[in-house]
């Protein structure tokens, strides 16, 4: 027999109030639970905003990924490694067939590591850096220097191995367990494993999604053809990627968040970062003293050294475009990065006499700071370029030249300031992104090297 609320001695208004309070409590609990789950359910959701999944973390989505000292955000790399196929243990990649300046070296290493992940390599020999001749800048075939010639080894090891724990980093080829003696690596060009048909030899790897499958098929085919034991940790096989692969991988194939963060696994070594920071400090002092008291300055990369290609914009094109833009933006001071001292002096005279802009190089800037100047002079030509890189990234506006990989690297690194991990690709040509402009020709995809913009990791 059903009894009414009145016969039970409970007023309808009282019941309604109890029910409403219970609903409010339940609603509040649900909100708190959902908020907790949403804020820390997986690293991806937290790190999409640029910080670790830790409510007490001091870092936030205000991280400026354009900074050379920005923290390495690892979840996009973790995701790529998780998606890879790791069913052929014993594959080892060697990433040392590189050459050139920091733009080429850096992109070669990152691209080689990306291929290693896609191949399911369980080993990586710590990359080495091929140096250039101090007498002939175009001679890029001098002996190798260790990874620490440019980069922070500890930072690289921590970033890669924490994100891709199945990859072991070996100090050298001598440390690969069970490697045959004498050691011999197999040379491959990833693009050759795909069905490329009649395209330009510089074509990006449009088969990047199938590279892993093609590579593993190549492994098994060689094993069968030469009656070798299956590739394994006891029977490892080492692969050295041939020169030129640095412009192979279509970087945005992995998503903008991966593009914005992957380059952070390579950080300049600490002493060079410190010297670069000091140079930035002195440059701001120089700019403030150059007129108006403003510490802002333009950064310029003059690429007219002896190894510059003949079809690149010449001194007149570069200097005119740089000075007109800097003067139009009201800069009184500019930092000039170049390895051509004669033309540096020429540009500085033109800037002062025709535009009222004081231009200075790193050597000129550090003349009054003997301790830092001594440190600079102890570096090689390419190592000194890292100091230029740091200062140019910190400049208030950057002017460079395309298709210099150095200029491109600086501009695309600076581009990350726009939206951080959400940053969309640099729009090729035109007036740049409001933070940088690269002078050059943007008409022919191959002849003007525009493919580099699609294959460069900031």
From TrEMBL:
GO BP terms: fucose metabolic process
Signal peptide start and end residues: none
Keywords tagged on the record: Carbohydrate metabolism, Fucose metabolism, Transferase
Superkingdom of origin: Eukaryota
Identification of the protein by name: Alternative oxidase
Organism: Bombardia bombarda
Pfam families linked: O-FucT
GO MF annotations in UniProt: transferase activity
């Amino acid at each position: 027999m059903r009894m009414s609320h009145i016969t039970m001695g409970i007023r309808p208004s009282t019941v309604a109030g109890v029910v409403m309070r219970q609903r409010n409590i339940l609603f509040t609990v649900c909100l708190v639970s959902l908020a907790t789950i949403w804020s820390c359910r997986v690293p991806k959701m937290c790190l999409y905003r640029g910080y670790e999944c830790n409510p007490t973390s001091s870092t936030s989505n205000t991280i400026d990924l354009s900074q050379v000292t920005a923290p390495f955000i690892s979840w996009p790399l973790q995701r790529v490694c998780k998606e890879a196929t790791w069913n052929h243990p014993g594959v080892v990649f060697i990433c040392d067939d590189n050459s050139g300046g920091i733009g080429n070296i850096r992109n070669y290493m990152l691209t080689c590591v990306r291929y290693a992940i896609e191949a399911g390599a369980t080993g990586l020999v710590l990359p080495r850096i091929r140096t250039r001749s101090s007498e002939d800048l175009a001679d890029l075939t001098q002996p190798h220097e260790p990874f620490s010639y440019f980069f922070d080894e500890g930072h690289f090891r921590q970033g890669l191995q924490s994100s891709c724990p199945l990859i072991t980093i070996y100090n050298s080829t001598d440390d690969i367990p069970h490697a045959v003696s004498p050691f011999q690596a197999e040379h491959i060009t990833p693009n050759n494993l795909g069905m490329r048909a009649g395209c330009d030899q510089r074509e990006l790897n449009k088969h990047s999604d199938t590279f892993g499958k093609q590579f593993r098929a190549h492994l098994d085919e060689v094993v069968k053809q030469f009656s070798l034991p299956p590739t394994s940790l006891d029977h490892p096989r080492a692969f050295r990627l041939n020169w030129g692969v640095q412009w192979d991988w279509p970087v945005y194939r992995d998503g903008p968040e991966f593009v914005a963060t992957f380059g952070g696994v390579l950080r300049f070594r600490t002493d060079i970062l410190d010297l670069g920071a000091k140079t930035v400090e002195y440059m701001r002092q120089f700019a403030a003293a150059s007129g108006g008291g403003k510490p802002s300055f333009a950064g310029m990369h003059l690429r007219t050294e002896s190894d510059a290609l003949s079809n690149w914009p010449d001194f007149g094109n570069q200097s005119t475009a740089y000075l007109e833009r800097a003067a139009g933006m009201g800069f009184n001071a500019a930092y000039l990065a170049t390895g051509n001292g004669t033309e540096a002096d020429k540009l500085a005279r033109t800037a002062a006499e025709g535009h009222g802009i004081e231009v200075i190089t790193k050597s000129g800037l550090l003349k009054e700071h003997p301790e830092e100047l001594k440190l600079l002079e102890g570096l090689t030509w390419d190592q000194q370029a890292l100091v230029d890189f740091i200062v140019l990234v910190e400049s208030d506006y950057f002017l460079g030249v395309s298709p210099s990989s150095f200029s491109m690297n600086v501009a695309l690194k600076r581009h990350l300031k726009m939206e951080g991990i959400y940053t969309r690709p640099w729009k090729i040509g035109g007036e740049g992104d409001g933070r940088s402009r690269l002078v050059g020709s943007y008409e022919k995809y191959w002849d003007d090297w525009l493919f580099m913009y699609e294959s460069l990791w900031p």
